[in-house]
Specification:
Two copies of one chain form a homodimer. Chain A has 402 residues and is an alpha/beta fold. Chain A has two domains: 12-50 and 293-400, Alpha-Beta Complex (Aspartate Aminotransferase, domain 1), CATH 3.90.1150; 53-286, Type I PLP-dependent aspartate aminotransferase-like (Major domain) (Aspartate Aminotransferase, domain 2). In chain A, 38% of the residues lie in helices and 15% in strands. In chain A, the strands form three sheets. A seven-stranded mixed sheet of chain A has the order 2-8-7-6-5-3-4, with helices on both faces. Chain A has a three-stranded antiparallel sheet with strand order 9-12-11. In chain A, helix 3 crosses helix 10. The longest helix of chain A is centred in the last third of the chain and has 21 residues, at 293-313. Chain A is globular, with a radius of gyration of 22 Å.
């Protein structure tokens, strides 16, 4: 027994890595389920929509003797298909401008690693997708948040706010459009503001467009890669996860017109050899889904969005701006600390044998103390379940605030 | 036309990323094929062995409605299966000590990121797997190479060589056992030397055991994770790629008894959400392959090894130590610059309509100028093709040295 055995220590970078704000309440949810409480999961962006059978079948019918490495940039046949896909979405590229990545996550990492050095700064409107913090920490990059406000529905901050945040170390601006966690969809005018500031200060624009197809109220999605004059600055970080309900596939894409950035990202891509083969087959089949594939899904999410947001705003003291895209909403609740409230919902509350799990919003802010009375809700359940979940929340707020 | 458009610059880190030494001759190979020359690929560790049908079928029969994220550490059922697999290989762990990774590549990245900060040093006997350089560069970590020599068959450097390389910034030693690119299999005595030095200086031992099953001449593989007293220091970085000829699956594992390291690596794992689902199903099925699965493969590789190495050593001025494991060998050739020679083989040479592609060894050394007259050969072709390839090489050396 080596009681005084030496023990090497973890890295500071590892110590600073933020734990996932979405997953840290999981043990409380598991305990609730063990007590027999039904938990409505509005905490995580895992769609309940079936993965299209046609694309699962493409994998089921795979005809390969040897499961070989693919090209480090992904199968050429898949990249050529993606050219078609992007052309349909107003983005004109060739297949050598696409690197297939292991999920959108790896596209984000390649963008940061290829364009930024330790100590460099990236401006991100907050609240933002929490894992941006993790990728920035692992790359030694500093996130400079600028606030977007719930009263403005989380619109793009003013050009002045960006100007004030720019320093000699600023290398990039990162956006998620439509936005996770706010659901905000940037307008052409807002993208033009981003273009202006990027050109003026020669900054990269990293654009996470994972939710491109999820836009409501007849609004159009505009890709950063379609902005004229921004070709050398814009990098698209994409994923098939939400688009085709294929989160477990781990296939994304890194797309840019900037050849030097592509060459650099390819070196990171070569170091990890190749993206997963099976899900590339699935992704390639997905480009050939019927043109009306998204129509039904779109109608379903629109219904869920209206149900959720209308129910939330009907509750005393709750504010939830109507999101224009994605499948998330941020709500301000009449509570002091939404993390305590979310934990209490799982630990100490039930309504008709059920409770609701949400993501405390503080983890989506880089500024400490921000978002403490907000939660993020993912409307990835059907209308009936959303109504049940809202019944729980409504009853819970009454009981909690007694 | 914006001729004087501004253009943001890539990162220094991206600039320093090494290009893959294995893949950079690829355009010359493609040109050779277009000229109608047959190219024998001994340059890359892509096995030609069929992926077992039973494990491909497990994916073909996948019964999932929604391709969901898995747990960030991988499916629990798969991790439990891996516990069985490791127990059969002398490594006793529980399923919470395993994080399923996206290939062995990600396991290497998690080890470096979790345990090392920018400026920290990692000692690696050279030549070593070239992508270690890439992962170290992306993490800002300094590789400190210590030479292993072709005359000693690439045995572990002496304990004195390690002692001389240790500085206050040293955090870890990295080995690949059996070794890529040398094929060297470390003995128990050598592992005890590594244990001694790790305990004395409180260093992590990162052990890449991708080729565990490929050991010849009746020699036994000893895992770093089975070394008594080294539980808090040893980290196993593993992959199913070579074991089951499943390189395109992108499934590996990060395994350690050190709880603090596991907790830290889990934060990196959560940031990237989950490893690919399809190949986890394949990996889980692989643990149930019949016990004699490796016997046939083993005999095949042993035959190839003997064929390749004996042919090489029969050539004038060629030295190739007999490797004890993996499916690589390093050969010293009677040429000044093996990169030029390898390019010449593809650009300007053919023998009976064929040529051979090898990996110049310089890319496997961190010390500039080392390995300039060496190549790495992967014996991933059948005996007949290896003989054809050796015919080409033999004829080429005669012509090149005229």
């Amino acid at each position: 027994m080596l009681i005084f055995a030496p023990m090497p220590t973890i890295s500071n970078r590892g110590g600073h890595m933020p734990p996932s704000p979405i997953r840290k309440l999981v043990p409380f949810a598991e305990a609730a389920k063990q007590r027999g409480t039904k938990v409505y999961h509005l905490n995580i962006g895992q769609p309940d929509i079936e993965t299209p059978k046609a694309i699962m079948d493409a994998v089921r019918h795979v005809d390969m003797k040897v499961l070989e490495y693919s090209h480090s940039a992904g199968f050429e046949s898949y990249r050529k298909k993606l050219v078609e896909y992007y052309a349909r979405n107003g983005v004109n590229i060739n297949h050598n401008q696409v690197i297939v990545t292991t999920g959108g996550s790896e596209a984000i990492l390649f963008a940061i690693m290829s364009c930024m050095d330790p100590g460099d700064e990236i401006i991100i409107p907050e609240p933002f997708y929490a894992n941006y913090n993790g990728f920035a920490t692992s790359a030694g990059v500093t996130v400079v948040p600028i606030p977007s406000g719930i009263e403005d529905g989380f619109a793009l901050p003013s050009i002045d706010a960006f100007e004030k945040a720019v320093t000699p170390r600023t290398k990039a601006i990162m956006i998620c459009n439509p936005n996770n966690p706010t659901g905000y969809l940037y307008s052409r005018q807002e993208l033009e503001v981003l273009k202006e500031i990027c050109l003026k200060h020669d900054l990269f624009l990293f654009s996470d467009e994972a939710y491109r197809e999820f836009c409501y109220d007849g609004k159009e999605h505009i890709s950063a890669l379609s902005l004229e004059g921004l070709e050398q600055h814009a990098i698209l970080m994409d994923t098939i996860s939400k688009r085709y309900s294929a989160c477990g596939g781990r296939i994304g894409a890194f797309v840019t017109h900037n050849q030097q950035v592509l060459d650099t990202a390819m070196k990171f891509a070569q170091a990890r050899l190749s993206p997963p083969s099976f899900a590339q087959i699935l992704g390639e089949a997905a480009v050939d889904l019927p043109a009306d594939y998204f129509d039904g899904i779109h109608a379903e999410y629109d219904l869920r969005r209206n149900t959720l947001v209308n129910r939330l705003n009907a509750m005393d003291g709750v504010l939830c701006p109507m999101p224009g895209g994605a499948f998330y909403a941020i709500a301000r609740l009449p509570v002091d600390d939404s993390e305590k409230f979310c934990q209490w919902l799982l630990e100490s509350f039930s309504h008709n044998g059920a409770t609701v799990m949400m993501a405390p919003a503080a983890g989506f802010y880089a500024t400490r103390g921000q978002g403490k009375n907000e939660v993020r809700l993912a409307y990835v359940l059907n209308k009936e379940d959303i109504n049940h979940a809202m019944d729980c929340l409504e009853a819970a707020l009454k009981e909690y605030n007694k």
